[in-house]
Amino acid sequence: MTDVQITKKGTIVTAEISGNITGECPLFSADLSGIQELWIDLSKMQYLNSLGVKHWVLWTGSLKPTLKITMSKCPSSIINQVNMVAGFLPSAAIIESFYIPYSCEKCSQESSLLHENGKHFVMGNPQRPGWITPIATNPCPKCKVDMEPDVVFDQYFAFLKIKKA
User: Fold this and answer.
1) Which residues contact 127 (CB under 8 A, 6 or more apart)?
2) Spatial CB neighbours of 28, under 8 Å, sequence gap ≥ 6
3) Quick check: 157 and 132 in contact, CB under 8 A?
4) Are residues 87 and 125 part of one domain?
5) Do residues 20 and 48 touch, judged by C-beta distance below 8 A?
6) Where among 78, 95, 112 does a domain terminate?
7) Which domain holds residue 144?
8) Whether the model pTM is above 0.90
9) Where are the alpha helices (DSSP H) in the chain?
10) pLDDT tens-digit profile of 134-160?
11) Which tens digit of pLDDT belongs to each residue from 19-70?
């Protein structure tokens, strides 16, 4: 089940998605006429199925190209789609924050840490390359050993358009 809490303040809309993004996600049918900015909070999103991906791409393709879209607290399932599916992230959209999965090599504990734009990463563009500095110190809650990012660097961070040396 999906719930979308939409808050409108002037020409800015904030949409907080809770639950699963499927083909019936209420965000896809929300009235966004007359807005200039759309903030999408994905902190409570649980799952994204293939119909959700398809409808997301169709929905973002139908939005005004001048609409400023900012996505925050993106779970790894969203980042994976951004990297794999053309059109999932509109060209003018910004990822404000996203989670990086971490794991402990000693006890196999897993967690995710929020990384913020301008603090831990910057998305690249044609004028400048992006960069990422994953949080280095992340003690395992179970055994206290530092956890490591549990991603394939070049694949997970591809959306940042990091220029290789």
Assistant:
1) none
2) 55, 56, 58, 59
3) yes
4) no
5) yes
6) 95
7) 100-165
8) yes
9) 50-62, 76-84, 153-156
10) 888 889 999 999 999 999 999 999 999
11) 999 999 999 999 998 999 999 999 999 999 999 999 999 999 999 989 999 9
